[in-house]
Amino acid sequence: MRYTQGERLEIIRLVEQSDLSVKQTLEQLGVGRSSFYRWYRAYVDHGVDGLSPPSNQRRRFWNQIPAEER
Question: Under a CB-based contact definition with an 8 Å cutoff, are residues 50 and 43 in contact?
Answer without folding.
Answer: yes
